[in-house]
Design a protein that fits this description.
Layout: H1 3-11, E1 13-20, E2 24-31, E3 36-43, H2 46-57, E4 61-68, H3 75-83, E5 88-91, H4 96-102, H5 106-119, H6 132-161, H7 164-170, H8 175-183, H9 191-228, H10 230-234, H11 240-250, H12 260-266, E6 272-273, E7 282-283, H13 290-306, H14 308-319, H15 324-344, H16 355-361, H17 366-373, H18 377-384, H19 391-403
Parallel strand pairs: 1-4, 4-5
Antiparallel strand pairs: 1-2, 2-3, 6-7
Helix pairs in contact: 2-3, 6-9, 6-11, 8-9, 9-11, 11-13, 12-15, 13-14, 13-15, 17-18
Length: 404
């Protein structure tokens, strides 16, 4: 290559595209007018990532790189490219019509990703690593719950068809009483009884182990979420699992949620028109991230049951003739507005660390405080430990303690 050609290559603007897989990734380079320049395959290793970046930079000034699977197979390359100050965007797979028209191969998909980056069709920022730990813990906790539920269902199924003596003894037990009794079994008797009791004992021990595992994962998840976004975790009705799901949906990138309305649509909480003729109404959205929608639903249910302001709102809407589904839709939309604020801005959380030492210094019991404030002692306990957030109650509690 002559010096003039090398200078022209170094000065031209290029766009990259990456089709990622478990062991390899295919990289394509196009010019700023869409012309194909080159493509090559690299391994998904540190050396492969470095070689892929060198390959891209050798063809000009890299403007944008479109990557398929920035949070899955392409996560490693995305991490290295962003650390090199390169602009990376997330690319969805080509639609079926385009795939039928031009076919499918690694080079074709890589060039398609590059064209998506050039045209601006791919503009979403990739998910970064700030919620990678939360996502891992959340997935592990969910899988523990699913496995525990499956084991409990198996126990119930076995007891339905078990010999009458086993069914009569353990079928009437419920919950942890049944699990504890089955875990202590010493299988004996004829071959059928021994086999059934052995299976029940194994499943019961599995349930107990998964319960302990889920508890440990939940505690770890709570700690990580509280550190990552204390305002979100402290919001009323937001538990560790709910907060984790909302953080995973947000992807650690507030720029992915340009407005509060777009976040509501992302969570399937945006009102959808369902009017016809003289009927003028909206209905629940059935789109968006259903896991995030379920998180908003759980928050709404908790507030409907325990938050006085929400209960007053529900009473007013019921009196106005709205159905329960319509009220929940309105609540989910309001909750989405609050969650968006917690996810995109730093929400100050009033301190509560002084409450327990102040109560103990006055030699006051939880029962005495609860009786004065008209709540249960457990409410005061969870408030002191930071498990429950209730700013109004905290202020009233602190004023009472200071005056006592």
């Amino acid at each position: 290559m002559t010096s003039t050609a090398a200078r022209d290559t170094a000065e031209q603007d290029v766009f990259g595209g990456v089709d990622s897989h478990a062991d390899t990734l295919h990289v394509a380079v196009i010019s700023d007018n869409g012309g194909h320049l080159a493509d090559a395959e690299f391994t998904t290793t540190a050396a492969g990532y470095a070689a892929a970046l060198a390959f891209l930079n050798a063809h000009g000034r890299v403007i944008t790189i479109g990557v398929e699977g920035t949070s899955s197979y392409g996560a490693g390359f995305t991490r290295v490219a962003r650390s090199a100050a390169l602009h990376v965007v997330e690319v969805n797979r080509p639609d079926r019509a385009e795939r039928r028209r031009i076919g499918k191969s690694d080079p074709i998909d890589a060039y398609a990703a590059a064209r998506a980056a050039l045209s601006g069709r791919a503009s979403s920022a990739p998910k970064d690593d700030t919620v990678a730990g939360i996502r891992a813990l959340h997935n592990a906790a969910r899988s523990a719950v699913k496995a525990r539920t499956a084991a409990l269902n198996q126990i119930g199924s076995i007891l339905i068809t078990a010999p009458e003596s086993i069914r009569a003894k353990y079928g009437r037990l419920k919950g942890t009483d049944r699990t504890d009794a089955l875990a202590r079994l010493r299988p004996a008797g004829d071959p059928v009884h021994t086999a059934v009791l052995t299976a029940l004992k194994s499943l019961a021990r599995r349930v107990k182990e998964l319960t302990a595992e889920h508890q440990a994962l939940g505690n770890a998840l709570d700690s990580v979420v509280s550190v990552h976004n204390p305002g979100l975790r402290a919001a009323y009705g937001v538990g560790p699992d709910t907060a984790a799901q909302l953080l995973v949906t947000a992807g650690g990138n507030p720029e992915r949620m340009r407005t509060e309305a777009s976040f509501a649509a992302l969570c399937g909480a945006a009102p959808v028109p369902a009017s016809s003729g003289r009927t003028n109404r909206h209905r629940l959205s059935r789109g968006g991230d259903r896991a995030a929608n379920a998180a908003l639903y759980r928050i709404a249910l908790v507030r409907m049951s325990h938050d006085s302001r929400t209960r007053e709102y529900v009473a007013r809407q019921t009196a106005a003739g709205r159905t329960k589904k319509e009220i929940i839709r309105l609540l989910k939309r309001a909750v989405a507005r609050e969650m968006f604020r917690c996810l995109t801005t730093m929400v100050a959380v009033p301190g509560i660390a002084d409450l327990r030492p102040l109560r103990q210094s006055k030699n006051l019991t939880l029962t005495a405080a609860a009786q004065h404030l008209g709540v249960w002692p457990s409410t005061i306990s969870t408030l002191e430990r930071g498990i429950r957030r209730d700013d109004d109650l905290a202020h009233a509690y602190r004023d009472w303690l200071q005056a006592a």
